[in-house]
Amino acid sequence: MVFPVVFLKLADWVLYQLLANSCYRAARKVRNYGFFLRNQTPRSSSQQQAASLFPTASHCDVGNNIRSSQTLVCDIHGVLLRAETFFPYFMLVAFEAGGILRAFLLLLSCSFLWILDYELKLRVMIFISFCGLRKKDIESVGRAVLPKFYLENLNLQAYEVWSKTSSRVVFTSIPRVMVEGFLKEYMAVDDVAGTELHTVGNRFTGLLSSSGLLVKHKALKAYFGDKKPDVGLGSSSLHDHHFISLCKEAYVVHKEDGRNNQSCLMPRDKYPKPLIFHDGRLAFLPTPFATLCMFLWLPFGIVLAIFRILVGICLPYRLAIFWGSLSGVQLTFQGCFPSSNLEQKKGVLYVCTHRTLLDPVFLSTALCKPLTAVTYSLSKMSEIIAPIKTVRLTRDRKQDGETMQKLLSEGDLVVCPEGTTCREPYLLRFSSLFAELADEIVPVAMNAHVSMFYGTTASGLKWLDPVFFLMNPRPSYHVQILGKVPPEFTCAGGRSSFEVANYIQRKLADALGFECTTFTRRDKYLMLAGNEGIVRENKRN
């Protein structure tokens, strides 16, 4: 049984570590703080002297060709990442893998974490974030959620040194399961040595393994033996100085540089690998203050989302736009309304980029006219609350073509040929089926912005996608209607359906400033969720 073992170990750990050690450490910290106030100038100078033992990372000669054959060692915390604390990443694990109650418990722990030393603080965050969670859930967060936040917080100066070496090994006291997926997938690391966690069966207990918290300089000696690594990158802490002193060359990344220096910010175009897919609900880095703001907003956000849904369902288009804007929803419209050809017996086919499940709804609202939307997989709840008609496709090309032809004969139709949503400025490969069905094709460039919650998910509950989007304080939608596709670029003009699909994809990408890719719906779900993204009837409940 997992839980009796966990609670016995936890009781022993609390009695010894928390009640005994932490009280002593807190008293010592208060005493040292008083000593620090009395001796501020000498202590500051000694810290500066310790920090000056090694040059900064900006002084490393990255143009030296010898670097291409050298081995580099460093930590991800405080070196590769600009963040001063790893709390936000534990919060992401707690929220995305454990749920909102676990995240709230981790937030409450901030009230006493400040009195604990680094090791005990890390043990507490690990226990709260990991206790009882399944291995596959943590691995999913490490693969699909954390990389986005790691990339946004990379230290450019440290990465420039990192990228010039041929072999890289990371030593960190952070749990290995939290960083290994990112480091191997995006940073091309050769090996990761991190703190190992105790498991029972397929679940984490929240405790450390028998090896305990990883000590970097000891792990480096055990890994390399008598051989010295070529380059070491460390933070300005004395512990890291001991670690990088075991290398032939050593450089320091200062906290002040990473926090204030604009030259340390990593621009998107310099990412080691493009970030196209990621998952998770949180759209912000959950620092303690930001997380507190989220929890304070949550009750208002739920009520506001319900109000916005009712406005969209019950009110006419003009009133829905008015009350939606009063509630904080920003809808911007660009382009002209397409003119209908009276000679055509078919409706207009709107081809949209796919940002959330609400794309057809906002297009219908912007045009102030009812539309029909087709989708590959949609939960029953999303169908119920949708203010427009939705029709499911079956992935059978012939049957889906007949269904869409029938819908076009009844009126205007909206299709998202990417087949799935993408949060980043990329367009997935367009299915060419729509190009065979109509000659009047109107491309629509749509984009959505959120500040708190993402309105899409690959592994979560999809019926909550519209709710999470509308829970944002000021969600925004941009709808840009491009002109009708010229006849010479349609199938009727002699083009193949693939040429038409690629042409429209490029036009939409240019309008939004996005990049085109050849990734598909299947690629996204296999990367993020380990499935093909199909909503099964027998799993809805």
Descriptive notes:
The protein has 541 residues and is of the alpha/beta class. The protein folds into two domains: 54-59 and 68-270, Rossmann fold; 298-529, Glycerol-3-phosphate (1)-acyltransferase. Helices cover 45% and strands 14% of the residues. The protein has helices spanning 2-38, 40-51, 76-80, 87-98, 100-108, 110-113, 118-130, 135-144, 146-152, 156-163, 176-185, 216-224, 238-244, 255-260, 288-314, 317-326, 359-367, 380-385, 397-410, 465-470, 497-512, 521-528, and strands spanning 71-74, 167-175, 191-195, 197-200, 203-208, 231-235, 249-253, 330-335, 349-352, 372-375, 389-392, 413-415, 426-427, 441-449, 476-481, 515-516. The strands form four sheets. It has a seven-stranded mixed β-sheet with strand order 8-15-14-9-12-10-11, with helices on both faces. It has a five-stranded parallel β-sheet with strand order 3-2-1-6-7, sandwiched between helices. A hairpin with a 2-residue loop joins β4 and β5 (203-208). It is elongated and about 80 Å long. It starts with a helix and ends in a 13-residue tail after the last helix. The relative contact order is 0.10. The model is unreliable at 26-50 and 537-541 (pLDDT under 50).
**Tally of DSSP helical segments:** 22
The strand order across the widest sheet is 8-15-14-9-12-10-11
From the N-terminal CA to the C-terminal CA, the straight-line distance is 29 Å
Based on DSSP secondary structure assignment, what is the total number of beta strands?
16
Chain-averaged pLDDT: 86
Structural class: alpha/beta
CA-atom Rg in angstroms? 27 Å
Residue share in helices?
Answer: 40-55%
Membrane topology: Multi-pass membrane protein
Protein name: Phospholipid/glycerol acyltransferase domain-containing protein
Organism: Gossypium tomentosum (Hawaiian cotton)
GO molecular function, one term: phosphatase activity
